[in-house]
Amino acid sequence: MINRQTRAVCTTEGDTLRAAIVGEVDHHGAKELREEIDDAILAAMPKKVVLDLASVDFMDSSGLGIIMGRKALADKLGAGFALQNPSKRVARIIELSGLNRIIKIESQSDGGNNNA
């Protein structure tokens, strides 16, 4: 079960599906969080998927798995994929894992043109 404080708020804006993740992303709720986002992606069939990480308080390796798996699903569907607004702590984990070299990281304030 997803920690009550961990959830994904999925919205569609044009051809973009934005999944705003809120709370802690760890092994306790990773499966349910993954399923929730995948269901939204498959229902919307967007041209771009954005995971908004602005409200992620904590992320462990399960969170990296969430990111990689959603990118793989987007790739399979022919959709673009980006991360948006990671906190400094989460951005550091992404950097240490090397995901920043293969996944675009956008800042909502700069219109999505920032590659971190």
Question: What would you say this structure looks like, in words?
Answer:
By secondary structure, the chain is an alpha/beta fold. It is built from three helices and five strands. The chain has helices at residues 30-44, 61-77, 88-97, and strands spanning 7-13, 16-25, 48-59, 80-84, 104-106. The chain is globular. It starts with 6 loop residues before the first strand and ends in a 10-residue tail after the last strand. The relative contact order is 0.16. The model is unreliable at 110-116 (pLDDT under 50).
Kindly summarize this structure in a few lines.
With 116 residues, the protein is an alpha/beta fold. Helices cover 36% and strands 32% of the residues.
The tally of strands reads 5
Order of helices and strands: EEHEHEHE
Average pLDDT score = 90
Task: Work out the helicity level.
Answer: 25-40%
**Strand neighbour order, sheet with most strands:** 1-2-3-4-5
Shape: globular
- End-to-end gap: 32 Å
Uncertain spans? 110-116
Q: How many DSSP H or I helices?
A: 3
Q: Main beta sheet: strand number and arrangement?
A: 5 strands, mixed
Strand content: 25-35%
Which class best fits the helix and strand makeup?
Answer: alpha/beta
- Which radius of gyration do the C-alpha atoms yield? 13 Å
Characteristics:
single chain; alpha/beta; 5-stranded mixed β-sheet; 3 helices; disordered C terminus
Topology:
Blueprint: E1 7-13, E2 16-25, H1 30-44, E3 48-59, H2 61-77, E4 80-84, H3 88-97, E5 104-106
Parallel strand pairs: 2-3, 3-4, 4-5
Antiparallel strand pairs: 1-2
Helix pairs in contact: 1-2
